[in-house]
């Protein structure tokens, strides 16, 4: 006869009630382990380290450390705003809810391999992201991150980014807006991946990505695709995410987006922006 929970293994107590409780406990543990494994598999997606789980910045012995909130500084002109600006922290969005659903981009293109190198690595390249809230200007680093910039320019020229929602905003410990996933789930991309670059950049000092940095999100070493993040305030992060650009205008736009908050869907200070943030158009070219 096949064994079942009514048959007592040698390590179970003899008392019927104690045995029943022990069997129930073991059953619940098995179920919990199965659920945890499924959650872990489902969450394997492209991302920077979550604000609620950064050991160096947001977690102290399992307790999330909350940063003080303050109102943003008055918005500056996007044409004169520079990466040296220091926007204030966005307020916590506790109990806030997004009133929209992210819609995946229809007919998003996909490629099997990284695009061939076509950029001039000694040239000056810039990009502009036009959000509904305003524009962000970026100086791209073709010299130190050639594959990354080549891919970004390629995708921009293919209009891959146009109409994509920015699906993630962090406002505690980590201060970034993450964009570039056509599915809006955090697991989408262009169909190809490419290697990390520029991780020894002198701009990444002391485990810190300074305000104005534009860098790639990933799901592990050398898994870059189309997802990237815009740093609107100095953020403590290990040098695992390719920096490939610097914001030269529009930090006020990002600060205003952050001030609206997010819905804590991924944990305190980490979730979907309360108000939709969509890249209407993204352009990139050599100057």
From TrEMBL:
Its EC number is 5.2.1.8. This is Peptidyl-prolyl cis-trans isomerase. PPIases accelerate the folding of proteins. It catalyzes the cis-trans isomerization of proline imidic peptide bonds in oligopeptides. Signal peptide: none annotated. The keyword Membrane applies. Keywords: Isomerase, Membrane, Rotamase, Transmembrane, Transmembrane helix. Residues 7-27 have a biased composition (Basic and acidic residues). Residues 1-27, 70-97 are annotated as: Disordered. It catalyses: [protein]-peptidylproline (omega=180) = [protein]-peptidylproline (omega=0). GO terms for molecular function: peptidyl-prolyl cis-trans isomerase activity. Belongs to the cyclophilin-type PPIase family. The chain crosses the membrane at residues 47-67. Pfam families: Pro_isomerase. Residues 134-284 form the PPIase cyclophilin-type domain. Gene3D superfamilies: Cyclophilin-like (2.40.100.10). It is an enzyme of class 5 (isomerase). The keyword Cytoplasm does not apply.
């Amino acid at each position: 006869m096949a064994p079942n929970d009514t048959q007592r293994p040698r390590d179970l107590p003899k008392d019927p009630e104690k045995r029943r409780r022990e069997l129930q406990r073991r059953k619940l543990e098995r179920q919990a382990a199965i659920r945890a494994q499924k959650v872990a598999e489902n969450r394997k997606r492209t991302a920077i380290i979550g604000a609620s789980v950064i050991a160096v910045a947001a977690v102290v012995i399992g307790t999330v450390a909350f940063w003080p909130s303050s109102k943003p500084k008055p918005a500056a002109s996007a044409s004169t705003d520079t990466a040296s600006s220091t926007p204030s922290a966005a307020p916590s969005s506790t109990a806030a809810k997004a009133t929209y659903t992210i819609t995946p981009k229809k007919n998003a293109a996909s490629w099997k391999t990284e695009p061939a190198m076509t950029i001039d690595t000694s040239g000056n390249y810039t990009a502009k992201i036009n959000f509904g809230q305003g524009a962000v200007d970026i100086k791209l680093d073709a010299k130190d991150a050639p594959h990354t910039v080549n891919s970004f320019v390629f995708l921009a020229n293919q209009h891959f980014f146009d109409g994509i929602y920015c699906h993630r905003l962090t406002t505690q410990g980590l201060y970034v807006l993450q964009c570039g996933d056509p599915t809006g789930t955090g697991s989408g991309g262009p169909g190809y991946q490419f290697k990390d670059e520029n991780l020894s950049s002198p701009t990444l000092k002391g485990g810190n990505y300074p305000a104005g940095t534009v860098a790639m999100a990933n799901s592990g070493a050398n898994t870059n695709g189309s997802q990237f993040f815009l740093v609107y305030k100095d953020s403590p992060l290990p040098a695992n995410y390719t920096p490939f650009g610097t914001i030269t205008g529009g930090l006020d736009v990002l600060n205003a987006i952050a001030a609206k908050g997010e819905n804590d869907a991924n944990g305190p200070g980490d979730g979907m922006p309360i108000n939709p943030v969509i890249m209407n158009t993204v352009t990139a070219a050599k100057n």
